[in-house]
Design brief:
single chain, Rossmann fold
């Protein structure tokens, strides 16, 4: 799998089809390479220009001095086979084909993609695409894509069959302060498929969770094997589209490949411990939790809240997904009772009453964090007169660190960037509604059950 290193750690990149014309994809690629601060060598290739941005522009990749680790091709589809032949002659092994007009189109496009694959095999090339948005490697400060923004650096490796889903995911992730180790638009997957990417990221030390948007796969048995091996090392979250009959038909039309039986995907995901998300929220909520929190390895979640109604909603959501709330021991109830008013709930959810200040949250979280019957913690804070979200966030972080228990937060309906970023920076998922926080805990619970089943945790 070291073949794929050149996509994520290249020392040199050539943009074949580079242009000085603003708004063109070949120009956006250049802007992204420079704006993210990529430190490797950058080569421009276009026979129509002698220089771009004051740098030499070569007629062919064969004219670029030295080695080229990765070529990014953005020329009209009909020229791609000729360019790819030159790439092979150059000795470049990693190729990202941005150009569209292949198997997602007509019969001519399908034949063109077959020819591209033939050339790739001849020269032992590895190809992302065609019809790809590109590749982004935040740790290498590399944005070899035509996305309008770059994701933050983190530990989630994400790949998507849809380029538009990639751009939407980047915008969403910036608002949620999600960080990525890699971001790949796999496009038509003529060569590099989901199975290849899963295998690679399973061994990537910068990746702690693998997440994907998938419509179809060309390598079903290989994907099954890759997921089975990867899940033993790292959690995997997949949003598999095309669950309905009409959705599957739309997916086949979009990607140029059959979507396959949804029940077969369901079975594979269950068997290999993959968390199957149904929405973009679920995909990234689960990925954020799995990337940063320990698995929930036993039944027993405690919900601490200053809003009774939110606690009820969280309890219903937990039951819907099979999460079991902790039966708090008499000792735990007694200790909590010393820190709260007499009108508290005396149970789980632990309703510490609407006037709860930072001290009350801190005292109750200390008790819950130490309670042996509590295996996971959810903290809800609704804004009241006494609520200091930033200080509460600090105690949530302290509790998570000292207890070692999976912990998530819900700042109910609140937009408080400072407090949210504080928790995000410490790997604690914080959501605006209880249901999403429960989704995070469910993902951690399913991960724990899978690891126990495989004998990988006690």
């Amino acid at each position: 799998m070291r073949d794929l290193d050149a996509f994520f750690r290249p020392k040199s990149v050539a943009v074949v089809g580079a242009t000085p014309t603003a708004g063109k994809i070949g120009n956006i690629l250049i802007e992204n390479l420079f704006s993210d601060g990529y430190k490797g060598k950058i080569f421009f290739v276009n026979p129509n220009y002698q220089e771009i941005l004051g740098m030499p522009c070569y007629r062919s990749i064969l004219d670029c001095p030295g080695t080229v680790d990765m070529a990014v091709i953005v020329v009209p589809a009909k020229f791609v086979p000729e360019v790819l032949e030159q790439v092979g002659q150059k000795g470049t092994k990693a190729v990202t084909i941005i150009s569209a007009g292949f198997s997602e189109g007509d019969a001519e496009g399908k034949e063109r993609e077959r020819l591209v694959l033939e050339i790739a095999h001849k020269h032992e090339l590895r190809i992302v695409g065609p019809n790809s948005l590109g590749v982004i490697s935040p740790h290498a400060r590399l944005n070899a894509s035509f996305a309008r923004a770059s994701p933050l650096k983190g530990s989630i490796a994400f790949f998507s069959q849809s380029g538009a889903f990639c751009t939407a995911a980047i915008e969403y992730s910036l608002g949620e302060t999600l960080g990525f180790s890699a971001f790949v638009s796999s496009g038509n997957k003529a060569d590099i498929d989901d199975a290849d990417l899963v295998r690679y990221f399973a061994h990537d030390e910068r990746t702690s969770c693998i997440a994907a948007y998938m419509e179809s796969t060309r390598k079903g048995p290989e994907l099954f094997q890759a997921l089975e091996r990867a899940s033993r090392k790292k959690p995997v979250v997949i949003l598999k589209a095309g669950r309905s009959v009409k959705g599957a038909k739309a997916a086949s039309s979009h990607t140029g490949a059959l979507a396959g039986s949804d029940s077969a995907y369901d079975a594979v995901f269950r068997q290999t411990g993959v968390y199957r998300a149904k929405t973009m929220f679920e995909l990234f909520d689960a990925a954020q939790a799995l990337a940063n929190q320990p698995p929930l390895t036993g039944d027993g979640v405690a919900i601490v809240t200053n809003a009774g109604g939110m606690g009820v909603i969280a309890t219903d959501a937990a039951e819907d997904v099979g999460l079991v709330l902790s039966e708090l021991s008499d000792e735990t109830l007694e200790q909590i009772g010393k820190a709260v008013p007499p009108t508290w709930s005396r149970g789980n959810p632990v309703d510490i009453i609407g006037d709860a200040d930072t001290t009350r949250y801190a005292d109750v979280l200390k008790v819950v964090g130490q309670a042996p019957e509590v295996k996971g913690i959810m903290v809800i804070a609704a804004r009241q007169a006494a609520t200091n979200l930033y200080e509460i966030a600090k105690w949530i972080s302290i509790t998570a660190k000292l207890s070692g228990k999976p912990t998530v937060a819900c700042f109910a309906g609140i937009d408080d960037p400072e407090s949210e970023q504080f928790l995000d920076s410490r790997g604690i998922p914080v959501m605006s509604v209880p249901e999403r926080a429960i989704t995070s805990l469910q993902a951690l619970s399913l991960r724990g059950k899978y690891l126990k089943k495989k004998g990988l945790v006690d």
